Fold this protein.
Amino acid sequence: MGKTRKTYDIHFKKKVVDLHLSDGMGYNAISKEMGIDKNQVRRWVNHFQTEGMKGLEEKRGKAKGAGMGRPRVRPEDSESKIKRLEAENEMLKKLLNM
């Protein structure tokens, strides 16, 4: 079974970043105090410095761009779409009459 990834809220990440930027703590000291990996601290600091608060938001599981989600192998043509919708309507009519 695979590892489950721990997610942290944006306020926790901001607190970690502030410890480094404002208080001047090192990555190792922060990682020991907060119980997270030093590379994770470094990553959050870099994201914050390049993107601001937006960089600390969770990005996993969010599709990007106009064609969000998995693209269709081939688009459905008008005729087959009409047939499919007519079949759905017939099925619904039968269910309502039961």
Q: What stands out?
A: Residues 8-59 form a domain with the Arc Repressor Mutant, subunit A fold (CATH 1.10.10). Residues 78-97 form the longest helix (20 residues). DSSP finds four helices and no strands in the chain. The chain has a mean pLDDT of 86.
